Amino acid sequence: MSDILRIGLVGATGLVGREVIKACIGNDGVRLVGIARRETALPAGARMEMFIAEPGKWGEVLEAVKPDALICALGTTWKQAGKDEDAFRAVDQHLVLDTARAAVAAGVKRMVTVSSVNADANAKLFYSRVKGETEQQLSKAGFKRLDILQPGLLTGSRESDARLGEGLAKIISPISDLMLHGGLRKFRSIEGRTVAQGALALAGRKAAGRFTHDNDMIRRAAREWTKSKA
After folding, report:
1. DSSP conformation letters of 83-106
2. Domain of 66: which CATH number?
3. Of the four listed, 16, 28, 205, 222, which is most buried by Cβ atoms within 10 Å?
4. What residues make up the domain containing 21?
């Protein structure tokens, strides 16, 4: 049992969260426990525990489960938030931070969180500023190890909330990606599946510290995960 990696997952209903669940199918070395506010259909073949509770109770679930690491794939969109800054912060900042602090209080030592490319607490762009502020606060939460993923445009099949702008971006991304070189590589598109696999690989690392991962680093971690399953 000591060799089994126990992972808590919040944000299980989103693109990356669902891909985390899929990536764990058939892997006996991982015990995945999802925590969500609402029920969701699990991918075929998924074997995991799913706790449905209000966010204020998530700490109690983490205390009971005692995962080795927490993967946070929480996030909303400007549209889902009704284009309201407070509503957006409520999920992408406050819920993320509250969950992180509850995890630390429950004894969780490691956290992997999905942020965004160009996250910057001093950015003029609201989205980037919120992501950057959240990263800063997570660094003070008290984890032994914190991995921050900063993917570019996330691509993949979403359960809901199809967005026209994002849909068009996915169509042209194979071409636009070829134009992004050097320091601009971090803005290239990346599949949600790859981000999920990278998150799982990083969740198993024990070296202490705070680590930030761009697209290329996420892909390298994802390759480690797929090799470990081979």
Report:
1. T-HHHHHIIIIIIHHHHHHHHHHT
2. 3.40.50.720
3. 16
4. 5-229
